[in-house]
Amino acid sequence: MKLVTFTEHHRRRIGAVVGDSVVDFATTLPHLPQTMIAFLRAGPAAMDEARAAVAAGGHRLALAKVRLEAPVPRPGKVLAIGLNYADHVREGGRAMPEHQIWFSKQATCIVGPADAIKIPKVSDKIDYEAELCVVVGRRCRHVPRARAHEVIAGYMCGNDVSVRDWQQRSPTMMMGKGFDTHGPTGPWIVTPNDAGDVSCLRVRCLVNGQVLQDASTAEMIFDIPAQIEHLTAAFTLEPGDVIFTGTPAGVGIYRKPPVLLKAGDRVRVEIEGIGALENLCEAEDGATVIA
């Protein structure tokens, strides 16, 4: 299945994309939870029921008439691994990591395929990073790599947008990686039975139609099972948590001359078998907000 969060007539709910339509779970499966995290918390039984309903047809809406949102609009945790593709490590002149390097992105960075990447007033060094994202489906701790597949709800495209000067000011990278709107995800969550083997998928990033990243997930230094084993050795992962699994070579900051994002740029992440995520860059207004 391709699970989505979508808005239609100002009402947000979840469903599954089939061709050019969306099976609306609110109508087809009204007894199931109607937010993505709650649906994932309902476990394998809810997933199986949804899969059966989708196969049977269900109540459908035209995909063109709904707005796709971030599949998990407000994850509990957004975790990202750094320096996880060898060519990316080399392009930055870094030593190959002996251990996994992790940082957190803020939940407010998450936006969907119809949303803009805001270019902040405080920096002009904004970079793209195409990544395969994992969505956690089950509460878990101390998961061995051989059982990692049991806790994965599915996969989606992601863009780990980075404010490079803010990132370099602090060894934790938190500030440079957590700006609002700097975590586009989507357009849907592809469940493992439909995603197949994700260990060798083509990952590309295009800016204004120009291919700037083009690699394979086979080039990861630490694969997804290793990532889940490592993270759950330290803390509990919960349904709806999002894991950014690293970006390949070709990021803008290391190009000569650098290719950095600006208002008006269109950034597209494509992952074989998963989908495509496209976002327009816009200048933020920088207005004070106190609610």
Short description:
The protein is of the alpha+beta class. The chain has helices at 25-28, 36-41, 44-56, 86-91, 164-168, 174-177, 192-195, 224-234, and strands at 2-8, 11-18, 21-24, 60-62, 67-68, 78-82, 101-105, 110-111, 117-119, 126-127, 130-136, 152-159, 162-163, 183-190, 202-207, 210-216, 242-244, 266-271, 275-283.
Describe the structure.
The chain has 291 residues and is of the alpha+beta class. It folds into 2 domains: 2-68, no CATH class; 78-283, Alpha-Beta Complex (Fumarylacetoacetate hydrolase, domain 2), CATH 3.90.850. The chain is built from 8 helices and 19 strands. It has helices spanning 25-28, 36-41, 44-56, 86-91, 164-168, 174-177, 192-195, 224-234, and strands at 2-8, 11-18, 21-24, 60-62, 67-68, 78-82, 101-105, 110-111, 117-119, 126-127, 130-136, 152-159, 162-163, 183-190, 202-207, 210-216, 242-244, 266-271, 275-283. The strands form 3 sheets. Strands 1, 2, 3, 4, 5, 6, 7, 8, 11, 12, 14 and 17 form a 12-stranded mixed beta sheet that branches. A hairpin with a 2-residue loop joins β1 and β2 (11-18). The mean pLDDT is 97.
Question: What general form does the structure show?
Answer: globular
Counting structural domains, the number is: 2
> What number is the mean pLDDT?
97
Strand count:
19
Low-confidence stretches: none
Main sheet overview? 12 strands, mixed
Give the percentage of residues in beta strands. 25-35%
- What is the C-level CATH assignment of the largest domain? Alpha Beta
Helix-residue proportion:
10-25%
Q: Rg from C-alpha positions?
A: 18 Å
